[in-house]
């Protein structure tokens, strides 16, 4: 019981971090039709910017300032880069964001080096929130859940209960009509892209010190984020939330289980590869479980958990 409850809480905190990151990518794709390959790079910039700001001003100012900085940077990328290649189609957009990811990584190497930086959890949050059985649940993981839930609620209210949310949705579905009503559709797209990047920056502030802030963090998280988006359904915010929690809990539970799921391959197997597979524990297979889930989802339900079928 203790293992199940603690794994569920840790999986929920990790899953909410994944949602914080994947929701920005889902917003950009759902509103603009752009699959941003550099999205995880903005997550990395959020972590490095937070490290820099927190070293001089403290962590709480970084929590407020860094998402705005990353959002402004994302808006500039859309205005002066992505908008110029938009007329050449989706392939040009993919190539642009793919190249942007490499460029951001090299900038990080030049500015902060190739080793991990000492971006730590602030002292006032480095404690125990509560003790369940004999296991302590950290304050910072509780904060991750609270900030992610707050961001989710704010985004939902913004898109469904405010005038700017209605304008964003109108610009996506009927851009000519929105423009004829006096709305600047390119500016709406710029704000949407900046908003999605700001959400990635917020995830970097929260997740950079919970894990490790180093130059390969974008590549490590980027692949998982795309798995979340595919499993949840492209453009579906609810699907992104469900997939994030599912993958977070799945990986967290798998890490603590020593069961050998392929043990039946071992007895009598002449092939050494099969014998080696038979010795693998579920905890060793945890990193590949999200990708196996994605493959299964593409076979069984290609549109994802909550994706809409395109007729």
Task: Describe what this molecule looks like in 3D.
- By secondary structure, the protein is mainly α.
- The protein has a domain at about 1-215.
- Helix content is about 70%, strand content about 5%.
- The chain is built from 13 helices and two strands, in the order ααααββααααααααα.
- It has helices spanning about 1-30, 40-55, 60-85, 90-110, 140-160, 165-175, 175-180, 185-210, 215-230, 235-255, 270-280, 280-285, 290-300; strands at about 130, 135-140.
- The chain has a two-stranded antiparallel ribbon with strand order 1-2.
- The protein is globular.
What's the short story on this structure?
Helices cover 71% and strands 3% of the residues. By secondary structure, it is mostly helical.
SSE order and pairing:
Elements: H1 2-32, H2 39-56, H3 59-85, H4 90-112, E1 128-132, E2 135-138, H5 139-161, H6 163-173, H7 175-180, H8 185-208, H9 217-232, H10 237-255, H11 272-278, H12 282-285, H13 289-300
What's the multimeric state? single chain
First-last Cα distance: 46 Å
Q: By helix and strand content, what is the structural category?
A: mainly alpha
What gross morphology would you assign?
globular
Number of helices: 13
The SSE string, one letter per element, is: HHHHEEHHHHHHHHH
Main sheet attributes: strand count, strand direction, barrel closure: 2 strands, antiparallel
Low-confidence stretches: none
Roughly what fraction of the amino acids lie in strands?
under 5%
The helicity comes to over 70%
Characteristics:
single chain, 311 residues, mainly alpha, two-stranded antiparallel sheet, 2 strands, 71% helix
């Amino acid at each position: 019981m203790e293992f199940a409850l603690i794994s569920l809480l840790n999986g929920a905190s990790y899953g909410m971090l994944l949602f914080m990151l994947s929701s920005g990518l889902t917003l950009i794709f759902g509103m603009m039709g752009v699959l941003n390959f550099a999205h995880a790079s903005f997550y990395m910039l959020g972590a490095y910017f937070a490290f820099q700001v927190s070293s001089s001003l403290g962590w709480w100012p970084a929590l407020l300032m860094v998402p705005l900085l990353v959002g402004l940077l994302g808006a500039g990328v859309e205005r002066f880069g992505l908008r110029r290649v938009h007329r050449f189609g989706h392939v040009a957009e993919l190539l642009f964001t793919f190249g942007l990811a490499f460029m951001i990584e090299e900038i990080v190497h030049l500015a902060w080096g190739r080793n991990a930086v000492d971006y730590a959890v602030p002292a006032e949050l480095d404690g125990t929130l509560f003790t369940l059985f004999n296991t302590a649940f950290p304050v910072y993981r509780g904060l991750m859940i609270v900030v992610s839930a707050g961001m989710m609620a704010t985004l939902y209210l913004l898109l469904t209960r405010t005038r700017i949310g209605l304008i964003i949705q109108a610009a996506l579905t009927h851009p000519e009509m929105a423009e004829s009503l006096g709305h600047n559709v390119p500016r709406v797209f710029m704000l949407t892209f900046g908003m999605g990047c700001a959400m990635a920056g917020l995830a970097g502030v929260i997740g950079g010190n919970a894990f490790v802030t180093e130059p390969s963090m974008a590549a490590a998280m980027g692949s998982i984020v795309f798995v979340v988006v595919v499993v949840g359904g492209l453009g579906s915010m609810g699907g992104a939330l469900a997939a994030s929690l599912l993958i977070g809990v799945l990986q967290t539970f798998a890490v603590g289980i020593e069961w050998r799921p392929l043990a039946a391959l071992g007895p009598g197997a002449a092939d050494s590869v099969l014998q080696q597979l038979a010795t693998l524990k579920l905890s060793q297979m945890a990193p590949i479980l999200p990708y196996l889930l994605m493959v299964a989802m593409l076979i069984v339900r290609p549109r994802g958990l909550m994706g809409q079928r395109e007729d």
